[in-house]
Design brief:
This protein is mostly beta strands and 124 residues long. It is built from no helices and eleven strands. Strands 2, 4, 5, 6, 9, 10 and 11 form a seven-stranded mixed β-sheet that branches. Strands 1-3-8-7 form a four-stranded antiparallel β-sheet, with no helix packed on it. A hairpin with a 5-residue loop joins β5 and β6. It is globular and about 40 Å long.
């Protein structure tokens, strides 16, 4: 059983920063990649960022490129999402996910475990 627990969400003013963390636990947890997705009210879940735990390559949605940074700590089974220059459009529930796939990290179907999500609200 794999569990992913997100933390770090909250309320922030536009232009501010937040750092999300995702802690993973499980007897045989060794994913190939970790990712962050978000879902705003009335909208579909969308890809935000991902990191390959094999190569270290990172992937970002165009909407967050240059503002968000994903990083991973394999030893601690933790992944972080540093979010800067936040905008009201970034308001959403942010989900952490793990993948055993070797590609398609921008697609939700590549991920097999998901956290419960953490709310991020950016006020204007």
């Amino acid at each position: 059983q794999v569990q992913l627990v997100e933390s770090g969400g909250g309320l922030v003013q536009a232009g501010g920063s937040l750092r999300l963390s995702c802690a993973a636990s499980g007897r045989t947890f060794s994913p190939y990649a970790m990712g962050w997705f978000r879902q705003a009210p009335g909208k579909e879940r969308e890809f935000v960022a991902a990191i390959s735990l094999i190569s270290g390559n990172t992937y970002y949605a165009d909407s967050v490129k240059g503002r968000f940074t994903i990083s991973g700590d394999n030893a601690k089974n933790t992944v972080h999402l540093q979010m800067s220059s936040l905008k009201p459009d970034d308001t959403a529930v942010y989900f952490c996910a793990s993948s055993n796939a070797l590609y398609a990290y921008t697609a939700a179907y590549a991920y097999n475990y998901w956290g419960q999500g953490t709310q991020v609200t950016v006020s204007s």
